[in-house]
């Protein structure tokens, strides 16, 4: 087996494990597809994966290396990201959505738009410097010596994006058969508060992270 094929296979296996581990992105996608519909869930997933690819581009061209080396840059992105997560999480904890709150005068459900969920998913990743540092420390381990670093890094970042989007797509599709149950007011409120708690927890974790 050639070094390139071996590196790609090893990366897919390792990246697949990381993708399957539940985290902030998974909670956000599940909550969005449950409360606002399958289409909106896909918008959230696309925002998250675009954020991942932007960090992957940064890693390929060395931008995240500068972030890792710059204490001030890291702190700025870290605190902006932590505050953003706190803000979203507290909103969900304090004002969870219910069916009564979601119904407008016209009888239609007032759900978050696809653009809103796309933007939240994108910002959640772009404002987390640990995602960038993860890429710049994780990707080089799978780059063969004879490969072009930039090209191979972009390939690995693309694979990570495809794996993440595939996993999110499966989760979103699985919520469709449970739509009636998951749309109950009590379930919606519980999901909002659980997601809010996860956002706050990750915001706190990010705020306490050290650069090293």
TrEMBL record:
It is a multi-pass membrane protein. Its main location: membrane. It comes from the Bacteria. It is found in: Cell membrane. The chain crosses the membrane at residues 6-30, 42-61, 67-87, 122-143, 149-174. The keyword Membrane applies. Pfam families: LysE. The keyword Magnesium does not apply. InterPro entries: LeuE-type (IPR001123). Signal peptide: none annotated. Keywords: Cell membrane, Membrane, Transmembrane, Transmembrane helix. PANTHER family: ARGININE EXPORTER PROTEIN ARGO, ARGININE EXPORTER PROTEIN ARGO-RELATED. This is LysE family translocator.
């Amino acid at each position: 087996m050639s070094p390139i094929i071996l590196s790609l296979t090893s990366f897919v296996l390792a990246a697949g494990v990381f993708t399957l581990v539940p985290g902030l992105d998974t909670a956000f996608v599940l909550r969005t597809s449950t409360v606002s519909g399958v289409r909106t869930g896909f918008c959230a997933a696309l925002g998250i994966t675009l954020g991942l690819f932007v960090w992957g581009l940064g890693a390929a061209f060395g931008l995240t290396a500068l972030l890792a080396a710059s204490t001030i840059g890291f702190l700025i992105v870290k605190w902006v990201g932590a505050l953003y997560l706190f803000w979203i999480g507290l909103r969900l904890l304090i004002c969870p959505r219910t069916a009564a709150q979601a119904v407008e005068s016209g009888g239609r459900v007032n759900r978050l738009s696809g653009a809103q969920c796309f933007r939240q998913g994108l910002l959640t990743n772009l404002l987390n410097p640990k995602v960038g540092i993860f890429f710049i420390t994780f990707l080089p381990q799978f780059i063969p010596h004879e490969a072009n670093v930039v090209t191979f890094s972009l390939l690995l970042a693309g694979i990570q994006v495809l794996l993440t989007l595939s996993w999110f797509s499966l989760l979103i599709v699985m919520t469709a058969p449970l739509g009636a149950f998951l749309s109950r007011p009590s379930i919606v409120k519980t999901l909002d508060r659980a997601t809010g708690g996860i956002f706050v927890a990750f915001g706190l974790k990010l705020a306490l992270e050290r650069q090293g």
